[in-house]
Amino acid sequence: MSSHGTPIPMTSRKSGPLKGTAAVPGDKSISHRALIFGAMAVGETRITGLLEGEDVLDTAKAMQALGADVVREGAGEWTVHGVGVGGFTEPEDVIDCGNSGTGVRLIMGCVATYDFCTSFTGDGSLRKRPMARVTDPLALFGARAVGRSGGRLPLTLVGAAEPVPVEYETPVPSAQVKSAVLFAGLNAPGKTVVIEKEATRDHTERMLTGFGAEVVTETTPEGYNKITLTGRPELTPQEVAVPRDPSSAAFPVCAALIVEGSEIFVPGVSQNLTRNGLYTTLVEMGADIAFENPREEGGEPVADLRVKYSKLKGIDVPPERAASMIDEYPVLSVVAAFAEGTTVMKGVKELRVKESDRIDAMARGLEACGVEVEEDEDTLIVHGCGAQGVKGGATCATHIDHRIAMSFLVLGMAAQEPVTVDDASPIATSFPVFEKLMTDLGADVKRNN
Length: 449
Ligand SMILES: O=C(O)C1=C[C@@H](OP(=O)(O)O)[C@@H](O)[C@H](O)C1
Ligand SMILES: C=C(OP(=O)(O)O)C(=O)O
Fold this sequence. Notes:
This is 3-phosphoshikimate 1-carboxyvinyltransferase. Its main location: cytoplasm. By secondary structure, the protein is α/β, with parallel strands linked by helices. The protein folds into 2 domains: 10-26 and 243-447, UDP-n-acetylglucosamine1-carboxyvinyl-transferase, Chain, CATH 3.65.10.10; 28-241, Enolpyruvate transferase domain (UDP-n-acetylglucosamine1-carboxyvinyl-transferase, Chain), CATH 3.65.10.10. Helix content is 29%, strand content 27%. The chain contains 12 helices and 24 strands. Strands 22-23-1-24 form a 4-stranded mixed β-sheet. A hairpin with a 2-residue loop joins strand 4 (69-74) and strand 5 (77-83). Helix 7 packs parallel to helix 9 (329-338). It is globular, with a radius of gyration of 21 Å. Bound molecules: shikimate-3-phosphate (S3P) and phosphoenolpyruvate (PEP). Phosphoenolpyruvate is lined by residues 100-102, 327, 354-355, 403, 430.
């Protein structure tokens, strides 16, 4: 559980060229799912490269609380002795998912079709986030949720005693919602169907297939994704090699693009089309990124990136790309501040319900650093400072949000004056080695004393 009790202020300063290799940790989305599917398989799943960030560690504890045996064997190496689909047992205590929307929403899906009761809570950020988007479809299976107003945590889910399969069209583009429905469908008889208008990350579908479930993805005549899962499969344990996280890689990549003279190597970055929108966008802005040695790792298409400092121009980011780069908009808005011209990010209202309201958090921090921004409910526009450079020289509020913290620290590495974030402790949720990795590349970033 991440307490975020004592804030850790951190400051970054204009840095010399970033050089070397940025081997970022394992993918957060895949790490959560590896533990969960391992817990639902019969026998021993072995995981390597697991992200040992707080979000994922909270999911590991939750799987243990539901009856699986989850053991850390070494750095990033874990084994899970699963209980099989239908084998979870009622947890004795409240499940605390810390800062993790993915953790809580996926696990709600896991327990929704069990004849027992599970209570959930989280940190000050997670307790503000909407859960009805998950509890509404879970009610169709027969589960009942009682939470705070607006369906917020703490929340208790009474699982369905006799679950029925469900057909559900997701009202928001969300892999968490899609996954929660599919996870619930695992312990329901018959076929559960999820329809999504916009494709979201597909790790659940890929991994479920890998664990032996029958999952079929089709395109409807309207161009939507229709995913059909056959319930009550026996999942077979797997060896899961977690690939590196493209959302974490975004931070050293973007830092190298804006810190003059930089050239870095970032191995094994996902090229999964449902995850790589940032990289497409950066190339359109003029980024010098070479995609080398394309291959498969852990069932995902990956490539090694060679990234050089680049003069960038602002662009319009197509709204239909949003789902494939949803967690990368904060750091993209930093890169946009250094570009020549305006970057328009439309179709991004989901950013308002992440760990913080990320449109608001970025807009306020960028303004404090001397960058002109515009926003509306669904849009963020950044007017790049170009050749004039970004002033910096501000303390930015991170609102218990790791991506906001890392984004402003990246900004400070190339700004004229140092940038402080009021609390860098949330970085440990997804990228616990951020400070060391960036320092090793040559960035000037450290905790304040
Ligand atoms: O399914 C997942 O692993 C995730 C889905 C996304 O959230 P939404 O489903 O809310 O878009 C993303 O922002 C999050 O970091 C991870
Ligand atoms: C939105 C994020 O995560 P989650 O929803 O799991 O808290 C994120 O990591 O940027």
